[in-house]
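Minutes, structural biology subgroup

Action item carried over from last meeting: produce the C-alpha cell record for Thymidylate kinase (Parazoarcus communis). EB confirmed the sequence was re-checked against the source entry. Recorded below for completeness.
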Amino acid sequence: MRSSPLEAEVQKGRFITFEGIDGAGKSSQIAAVVSLLGARGLVVEQSREPGGTRLGESLRELLLHEPMHLETEAMLMFAARREHLAARIEPALLRGEWVVCDRFSDATYAYQVGGRGLEPEKFAALETWVHPGLQPDLTLLFDLPPEVAASRVASTGADPDRFEREQRDFFVRVREAYLERARHAPGRICVIDANRSPEQIREEIETLIKERFFA
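Output recorded by EB:
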C-alpha cells in the first residue's frame, strides 16, 4: 500500500537533541547543525529546554534561580517539557520539519537523577507520562571532564545559575549519569569527545548526521 503525500512528508521530520554538562560547548555546534540542515533545504525548528515557549521560559527562570524541593524541580522540568512538546516539537514533527533542541529528557535524568539523587522510578514515570513512545532520532552527547567544563564556564564571566554553582562532585555524577544513559541507548545517543577543537567536533558531527540521515 502506497503512502499518501501527507504521510510521506511527515516521515521526513527528525528530532535531534544536544546534551552535556554546562560548558561542554554545545551552542556553536547547534548553530552549525541548523545551518547544515538548512543548506539542504530543510525546515528546522530550533529550541531549548527548559524553555522553548513563553510558559517554558518563565519556568526556566524559576528552575535556574529559585531554590526548590528536588521533586518540585523534576516536575517543573517535565511541565515545561509537556508545554514545549504540545506547542512546538510535536506540531513541527507532524509538519515534517526537523527539530534541533538544546537538551531534552536525558538532561533531566543526568541532572535530577544523577546529580541530585531523584529516584529513577519517579523519573521514568514522568517520562512515560509526558512523552510516551517519543525519543529523539539522534542525541549528541558532548562529553567533557568536569574541571575543563568549569574552567570554560568561569571564563565567560557570566553570573552562574544555581546549577552552575554546584561543586565538582555534582558534575561528576551528572557526567556519569549521561554516560549511563548512553550505554542503555547506543543506537540513539552518540558520545562526542568535547575536549577537542570546535572544528574537529563540527567535522565529526556533520559526518554523523550525513551517515545517519542522508547516506
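Discussion: The radius of gyration is 17 Å.
Next step: EB to file the record with the rest of the batch.
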